[in-house]
Amino acid sequence: MTKVLACIDASLYGASVCDHAAWAATQLKTEVQLLHVLDRAPDAVPTDMSGSIGLGASEHLLADLARLDEDRARLRLERGRAILEEAEKRVRAQGVAGVATLLRHGGLVDTVHEFEADARLVVLGKRGEHADFAKLHLGGSVEQVIRASHLPVLVASREFRPIRKLLIAFDGGPSSRKAVDFLLSDPAFTSYECHLVHAGKPKADDPHLAWARTRLAEWGGAHQVVERPGEPEAVIETYAREQDIDLLVMGAWGHSPIRRFIIGSTTTAMIRIANLPVLLFRE
Fold first, then answer.
1. Three-state DSSP state, 84
2. Helix %, strand %, coil % of the chain (to 5)
3. Confidence at residue 54, expressed as pLDDT on a 0 to 100 scale
4. pTM score above 0.90
5. In the beta sheet, which residues pair with residue 101?
6. Mind listing the pLDDT tens digit for each residue in 185-224?
7. Which of 105, 177, 251, 280 has an alpha carbon 20 to 30 Å from 65's alpha carbon atom?
8. Distance from C-alpha of 88 to C-alpha of 57, rounded to nearest angstrom
């Protein structure tokens, strides 16, 4: 069985990642694999400090530093296990029977790449444990995962709320078409209200929108296709607020101004402005 791969840490987004992963697993009828990666903490003391101490350093001081490093590693390992244990309880409490935990050393991006082969979706929080919330930026590893993963990536908002309405930001490019196909290929999503929004200058007989209308009609769920002039950021933010949208779905790369959303810092801006969970698709 395929799985939802949920990246868990001790950030404020941990509980929300669990909730979004449980929701996704229920819709996709998959298991959840909870992953916690023990990378090197930003403020960690280097393991080998003998060079900075000098040749006259006493052996007992070097031994104390070695024990300190060992204690730090042991505590981080115990902390990681505790994080996964609580996360597993939270996901199981929401009715997901198949839950596995995975604790690894290394980098988040490489570890996700290693275990995504049999996954359908990656879930992570907008910011990691060590992110600077004052800057309101995505955590560095979070953005790297979005760029590197070939799977859809669900970026969880601070808190989970029941999902009833989906907004697909559609520009006609391969990634936005992939988003449409993903949602419409699973019968579970027919219970949701789908809003497909195209921002920009309206075009008569747009073949991309014609394709989208045909796919949605074949799908059979409640939906509407909306064209609105204006900058994509403003259009999507306003529409999501007006319609009380619960999940934003968009392509990670596109062929219109929406392309700016995933390149550089504007990716962070879009996710922050939406104040919603965002499901991203690559070409």
1. helix
2. 45, 20, 35
3. 56
4. no
5. 34
6. 888 888 899 999 998 887 778 899 999 999 999 888 899 9
7. 105
8. 46
Q: Which amino acid is at 123?
A: V
For the chain, how long is the longest CA-to-CA vector? 81
Rounded distance, CA 270 to CA 182, Å? 22
Find where tokens 């981080």 sit.
76
Q: Please state, in angstroms and rounded to a whole number, the distance separating the CA atoms of residues 149 and 245.
A: 26
Q: Which domains does the chain have, with CATH numbers?
A: 3-41+76-156 (3.40.50.620), 165-281 (3.40.50.620)
User: Residue 36, Cα to own-chain centre: how many angstroms?
Assistant: 14
Q: What contacts 69, CB < 8 A, 6 or more positions away?
A: 45, 47
**Hunting for tokens 């509407």 — which residue is that?**
224
d(CA 270, CA 248): 10
More confident residue, 89 or 54: 89
In one-letter notation, the amino acid at residue 159 is E
